[in-house]
Amino acid sequence: MWFISVLIVVIFIYLILDTQKPSRYPPGPKWIPLIGNYMEYRKLYRKLGFTHLVWSKLSNEYGQLMGLRLGKDLLVIASGFEAVKEVLTREEFNARPDGFFFRLRAFGERYGLVFVDGEFFKEQKQFCMRHLKLLGLYNSSMEDRISFETNELVNNIKKHKGIIAIPEALQVSVINSLWAIVAGERFKTDDSRPKELMKHINLSFKLQDMSGGILNQMPIIRYIAPELSSFNKLKFVLNSLISFITELVEEHLKTASPYNNRDLIDAYINEMNKNSKDSTFSEKQLIILLLDLFLAGAETTTSTLGYALLYLIRFQEIQKKLQDEMERVIGRGKQPTLQDRARLKYMGAFLMELQRHANITPTTVSHRAKSDVEILGFDTTVLANLYSLHADKHHWGDPENFRPERFINSNGELIHDDWFLPFGLGKRKCMGENLAKASLFLFVTALLNEFTVTAVTNDKLPTLRAVDGATISPTPFECCFIPR
Q: Where do the annotations place heme binding (predicted)?
């Protein structure tokens, strides 16, 4: 009997202590034992529909640095320009969080580029950047590859006259821009493999958020509610993606030559063969590295292009101004090149406003405080709320309105606003920024050069309602491409 009494007292003390916040922790809602603020988060999420709107509401109440707890995870949301800039540029925040979800996707360990840090990350990133550059990611051959894909997309749209499904019609062309450099091949527009790959990539983004989600915060939930927590579905998607990439790597292992790198996979295999067994270069690391590259590159670019078409449909006067500028500056029927970007001012403003207003990545990937940092404490997960910058009423005036002119000054020059950070900032800034910018410009100008984009029917415009997830994506819609 005394044992049960002692156990009850111990449990009671534990539950009391579990409600205590760490010393100097940022202000935020009070939490309850075991699950922290999870119930409050879910209540707000059901009301607002988007994770970043939950963070913004709580930050408006508690301040630019707002602290809460979800399950076992301490989470701090940085909102506003000063707080976001500090989180993204200070060395102490360059680490990545660890946990069940982050290891679930990487053979139970820490591999890849997105969720690793320290010397491991530094060595792997330097290798990737060096070889992607050698393979043409930052020179004219990159433009040639993207332009080839834009032509293929245009021809495919012409061939399939009538109603076109977005983003499905864009997926193969977008993924090919990166696929040729990484895997040494491209998919044909009627190939079913990239469509299956993109289906899994899209679903993987919808099943999680940038904090790691409930599987990271309360891993035990996978045993209690494997379906409700999306554990089974996420595991299936990740296994499908990893199987696809593993097969690709195994094909390269059979044919790679030490004298010639056809692509990034060949270069990595040759680096593996040169290093000792305890180096950071391994087959598992290669597989998750490729997974990170495709997940990050394909989803965000496809979603942004989808939003571009959505806004062109809804704002026909903007579409007309873009086409008029191309004709005036470049010439009727002539496809713009990357050298023309500086001259197409309104196009530049449109693409920036597109990224600001659509907010494809409303928060950055999770950061981790790798040492005691003032009020945060060690091992706290930190999210930089980019939405708080892009939707700030005091800075933009009317952030809810889609208005490209806000990025053009009185002299007709583009404004490079410090509050505009779609690719992040600092050492963990998006590696694919140059490819993404080039792809957006070349795809949008190619489509506007050949077509006028319209709704299927004039009385029913596609919705602007987005789909939430690790990134924001447009609700799938249909449109018409009318030859000019």
A: 430
- Burial-class residue 226 by CB neighbours within 10 Å (0-12, 13-18, 19+): middle
Q: Which two tokens stand for residue 291?
A: 């997974």
Task: State the first-to-last Cα distance of the chain, in angstroms, to the nearest integer.
Answer: 86
Task: Please report the pLDDT score of residue 349 as a whole number.
Answer: 98
CA–CA dist 111, 41 (Å, integer): 30
Q: Which residues contact 25 (CB under 8 A, 6 or more apart)?
A: 67, 74, 375, 376, 377
d(CA 92, CA 76): 14
217 within some domain = yes
Q: Which residues contact 469 (CB under 8 A, 6 or more apart)?
A: 205, 206, 207, 208, 209
What would you measure as the largest C-alpha separation in the chain, in angstroms? 90
Asked if residue 89 lies in contact with residue 425, where contact means CB atoms within 8 angstroms, the answer is yes
Task: List pLDDT tens digits, range 434-450.
Answer: 889 999 999 999 999 99
Tell me, yes or no, whether 130 lies in a domain: yes
* 479 assigned ligand-binding residue: no
Q: Is 32 among the domain residues?
A: no
Judge whether 20 lies within some domain.
no
Residue 167 corresponds to which tokens in the numbers above? 């983003």
Quote the number of domains for the chain: 1
Backbone angles phi, psi at 362, to 5 degrees: -70, -25
Q: Which domain holds residue 157?
A: 1-12+37-483
The CATH number given to whatever domain includes residue 172 is: 1.10.630.10
Residue partners of 414: CB distance under 8 A and separation at least 6: 345, 348, 349, 352, 407, 408
What's the CA gap between 345 and 382, in Å, rounded?
36
> What confidence tens digit (pLDDT) does each residue in 399-433 have?
999 999 999 999 989 999 999 999 999 888 888 88
Model confidence over 114-130: pLDDT tens digits? 999 989 999 999 999 99
- Contact between 180 and 315 (Cβ < 8 Å): no
Contact 316, 341 (CB under 8 A): no
List helix spans (H) across 315-385: 316-329, 345-358
Tell me how far apart the alpha carbons of residues 84 and 428 are, in angstroms, rounded to a whole number. Answer: 13
Which tokens in the block code for residue 93? 């925040």
Q: How confident is the model at residue 133 (pLDDT cuts 50, 70, 90)?
A: confident
The string of DSSP codes covering 92-137 is GGBB---SHHHHHTTTTS--SSTT--HHHHHHHHHHHHHHHHHTTT
Residue 98: CB atoms within 10 A of its CB come to: 17
Would strands 163-166 and 367-368 be described as parallel, antiparallel, or unpaired? unpaired
Phi and psi at residue 474, to the nearest 5° = -75, 150
Helix (H, G, I), strand (E, B) or coil at 367: strand
Backbone torsion region of residue 122, taken as left when φ is above 0, otherwise alpha when ψ lies between -120 and 50, otherwise beta: alpha
Q: Cα(263)–Cα(281) distance, rounded to whole angstroms? A: 16
Over range 170-198, report the average pLDDT. Answer: 80
